[in-house]
Model the fold of this input.
Amino acid sequence: MPRTSKRQKQPEEEHTHLALRVERCEASVEAAVNYNVYAPQSAWHSDDDDPLHRFTTRLTVAGISTYPEERAGDAYEVTIYGDNLGSGDIRATLKDVQERDEHGSPKYRQYRGRQIPIYKPPPGMGLIDKIRGEPRWTAWLRVSPRFASDALALMSNGRSLYLAIHERKAHRTRWVQSVSLQTTDPAEE
Done:
């Protein structure tokens, strides 16, 4: 009888902290009437409390990875969207991600004599994709308009910039867990 070998179980999640040296930045801002006013039939996630006017900031940050070693020298292009439209994931609260029972009531568990909420965290803020066959990556994420304007202010100061990205790989999908645009190299922190 042939011997069967056991498959090594892949880890459920893999976390990587990336450090990128910013090579170039592009920015655009847009103001428009909320498009749901003109096409309400296609407004799937429309909310009556959404703003009438839409203000969007789009930043594209391109850089070269300096850390970790196995990805050093890879090129990255990160697109950051700052939008005031009623995106549930940007304006979400902890209450929105609390697990619910079959009756819709929030779930809790006992911890050291206290009842603490049970949360179902979102997968991430955005996605990271590898360009097949090349040492290049793309990423996108949605952020608050405040973050986008603060990033724009940093870009205009003339200093060298670095991007720190916390990447979480679940199965075959890479998610952005956090991002930081800064004037110090995150690989040296």
Summary: The beta strands are 13-33, 53-67, 75-83, 108-111, 114-117, 126-131, 136-143, 162-170, 173-182. The first helix runs from residue 88 to 91. The first strand starts at residue 13 and ends at 33. The chain has one domain: 13-188.
